[in-house]
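dumping this here so i dont lose it
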């Protein structure tokens, strides 16, 4: 049987070792002769699990003590609404930096709750490129500044942190979280859907500085109110316990791999390998400048829609799954999150060479 490599942008592949452990414990977790999905979320064993999960996540990211970690539901889209409901204050306005589909979607949702200014920081001609990151001259007039460090659809990543002075910086890190080291103290809020690097779909992590908690507008639903969730251990309703459990296993797995130092080195190696081949090829093209090429989502095209469709179909038969690009952009996209081994990237390049030789 051909080995399968899953390049899905999300829900994405998870570490094999984590899935094997979950499989082994599925019917008998913690010697309880029952599944983790079947125990009380407020029982001692599960409370111990979430306490340890938070400690492991803090250790991975070196999260300062003055930040709360919330494990919520509703995905990143839920946070698109929760953030203005919790953060809009005396200035009554937010700034959204748009660099692609998801940052623009966040801005559109925020308009339902507050006044915003929107600045497009992406140049598209001749290649995709971030054109500005210093907003220290205007940021003080806003309650917060929001951006998305990694756009999964276009494969654009912002490695430098925007300059916003003393204004609260908010980041949607759904597709880049835990892929490389960052300085958490530079942010007021970081949020991320789990289905890329953290675990399965169904749970969302919010890292929020404590001074930003407790300022929600009166009509904010309890499920989106950070103060309510923080006081309730993210459990004002029954949480997605199995997703939380799987995230806890992922955190331990990453710590065993040497933490984010080792993770970042591996991700850089994988991305460099694939981009080097794309640069050497006259058959495929990546349309992002080198300084903004995503470590997680590598986009490419043959420039021919029929050839692109043939590539995806034949790649799937060869065990290289989910390489079709997003419908917004087309082409191909290889999502190479933490769980993707370098052997998967090598197998993809081998196939790309074969396809190029047969179709050039």
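and the seq i came up w/
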């Amino acid at each position: 049987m051909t080995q399968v490599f899953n390049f899905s942008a999300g829900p994405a592949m998870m570490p094999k070792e984590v899935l094997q452990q979950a499989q082994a414990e599925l019917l008998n977790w913690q010697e309880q002769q029952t599944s983790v999905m079947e125990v009380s979320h407020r029982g001692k064993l599960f409370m111990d699990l979430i306490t340890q999960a938070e400690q492991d996540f803090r250790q991975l990211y070196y999260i300062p003590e003055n930040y709360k970690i919330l494990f919520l539901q509703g995905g990143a889209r839920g946070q698109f609404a929760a953030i203005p409901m919790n953060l809009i204050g005396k200035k009554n306005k937010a700034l959204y930096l748009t660099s692609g589909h998801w940052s623009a979607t966040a801005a559109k949702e925020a308009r339902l709750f507050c006044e915003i200014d929107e600045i497009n920081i992406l140049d598209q001609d001749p290649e995709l490129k971030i054109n500005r990151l210093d907003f220290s001259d205007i940021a003080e007039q806003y309650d917060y500044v929001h951006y998305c460090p990694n756009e999964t659809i276009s494969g654009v990543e912002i490695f430098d942190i925007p300059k916003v002075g003393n204004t609260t910086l908010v980041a949607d890190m759904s597709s880049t979280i835990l892929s490389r080291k960052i300085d958490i103290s530079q942010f007021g809020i970081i949020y991320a859907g789990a289905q890329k690097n953290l675990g399965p779909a169904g749970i969302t992590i919010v890292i929020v500085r404590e001074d930003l908690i407790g300022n929600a507008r009166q009509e904010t639903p309890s499920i989106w109110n950070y103060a309510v969730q923080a006081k309730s251990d993210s459990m004002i309703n029954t949480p997605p316990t199995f997703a939380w459990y799987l995230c806890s296993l992922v955190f331990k797995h990453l710590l065993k791999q040497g933490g984010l130092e080792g993770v970042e080195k591996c991700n850089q190696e994988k991305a460099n390998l694939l981009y080097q081949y794309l640069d050497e090829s006259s058959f495929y093209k990546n349309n992002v400048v080198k300084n903004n090429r995503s470590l997680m989502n590598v986009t490419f095209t043959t420039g021919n829609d029929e050839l692109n469709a043939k590539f995806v179909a034949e790649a799937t038969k060869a065990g290289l799954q989910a390489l079709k690009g997003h419908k917004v952009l087309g082409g191909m996209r290889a999502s190479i999150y933490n769980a993707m081994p370098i052997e998967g990237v090598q197998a993809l390049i081998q196939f790309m060479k074969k396809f190029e030789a047969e179709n050039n």
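DSSP finds nine helices and 15 strands in the chain.
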